[in-house]
Amino acid sequence: MADSVDVEAALGSVGTDPGDADLAVSIVGRLFRLAPQLTDLLDLGAREYGMGFARGRVLWALQESGPVVMRALSQRLGISPRTVTGLIDALEADGWVTRSPHPDDRRATIIAITPAAETALASLRDNYEGLAHDLIGDLPADDLARCWSVLTTIQARLGDVVATRRGAAPPGAGARLGSLGEIRMIDPRMTAV
């Protein structure tokens, strides 16, 4: 990530009066700077239990769905069956999930979380909720509702905007997504990375 460009800083929006800056660029820049910090917080809590973000995501999905066949878990998470198999192998080796044969389909395996995983997830949820209340719990309800609305809109638009920008940009120009979703910008106003 060291080679990524801080778009907000590159465009001169940092530290300026929001009325004089491109507020949309400033907001997106702020979101990109917050994302790794928030992910680090999630990882920190999960690492106490020996699981990173990807493993935690699998466990949260299993807790929500209950026991499920691996194919359904793969579809729910939007990742390849091969990736899910690797994650389940690791989680099973660490005692977080169990596999059992499907009663009606010899080819299918049912995945379930263990009581130890339930306990760990309950602790992680408590910590997560405490963090949320510490960070924003004292903000006015109207501000929280507006924030929720804006974030929901960004989330709903993100996939389409990225797909459109990928399709519209000539090779080697415009915005492109790099690893871990970072955006690198090659723009005439900035130095290429």
Explain this structure.
The chain is mainly α and 193 residues long. It has two domains: 102 residues, no CATH class; 65 residues, Orthogonal Bundle (Arc Repressor Mutant, subunit A), CATH 1.10.10.10. It has seven helices and five strands. The chain has a three-stranded antiparallel sheet. Strand 4 and strand 5 form a beta hairpin. The N and C termini lie close together (11 Å). 12% of the residues are buried. The N terminus and C terminus are likely disordered.
Give structural attributes.
193 residues, mainly alpha, 2 domains, three-stranded antiparallel sheet, Arc Repressor Mutant, subunit A, globular, two-stranded antiparallel ribbon, 5 strands, disordered N terminus, disordered C terminus, 7 helices
Quick structural gist:
This protein is mostly helical and 193 residues long. The chain has 7 helices and 5 strands, in the order αααβααββααββ. Residues 1-5 and 173-193 have low confidence and may be disordered.
- Tally of DSSP helical segments: 7
User: What composes the largest sheet?
Assistant: 3 strands, antiparallel
Strand fraction? 5-15%
User: Could you state the order of secondary-structure elements as H and E?
Assistant: HHHEHHEEHHEE
Distance between the termini: 11 Å
SSE blueprint:
Blueprint: H1 7-10, H2 23-47, H3 53-65, E1 68-69, H4 70-77, H5 81-93, E2 97-101, E3 109-113, H6 115-136, H7 141-168, E4 174-177, E5 183-186
Antiparallel strand pairs: 1-3, 2-3, 4-5
